[in-house]
Amino acid sequence: MQVSIERKRPTVKKFFGGTKEADYESAFVTIHFSEDEKATIESNRLGDRIVYEHPKDEVDYRDGQRRAVELPNSYGGQHPPPRYKRSRFVAHFIADPTQEVYAYLDTPLRFAEIQKSVEANLKNLKALMQGIESVPKERTEFEI
Predict the structure, then answer these.
(1) What letter would DSSP give residue 97?
(2) Which of 12, 52, 112, 121 could lock onto 101 through a cystine, CB 3.0 to 4.6 A?
(3) Beta-sheet strands, E only, within 1-144
(4) Count of other CB atoms within 10 angstroms of residue 3
(5) Are the CB atoms for 72 and 78 separated by under 8 Å?
């Protein structure tokens, strides 16, 4: 697994056609999985493991759950926002190795938080994958 996290200005579409460099910076994470790692992820359904949880997702989710309790018959109460709209999962990186995880970076501290979060989640994923690979794959029969 090769990982890179970088700050850069994304390319955005202009209103009347064409593209230009944005006037803000974003955090981009690139993860290249080896074929063995992809096979382990696919066979053990690890695609739904979270790589980065966007902070707004948690706030939106809590507000939606509160609204559902307060006004259960309203549209917002019956259709609260999903938990992970902007967050990124392993399956996202298998489909496209480079993902924008956070737009409009405001401080270097926010970028450091993103790096720590992604690093911790990927270390957990790597440990889980190594644990799965260490389990014997052959069938063993014995009597007790």
Answers:
(1) S
(2) 52
(3) 2-8, 11-13, 19-21, 26-32, 50-52, 88-89, 98-102
(4) 16
(5) yes
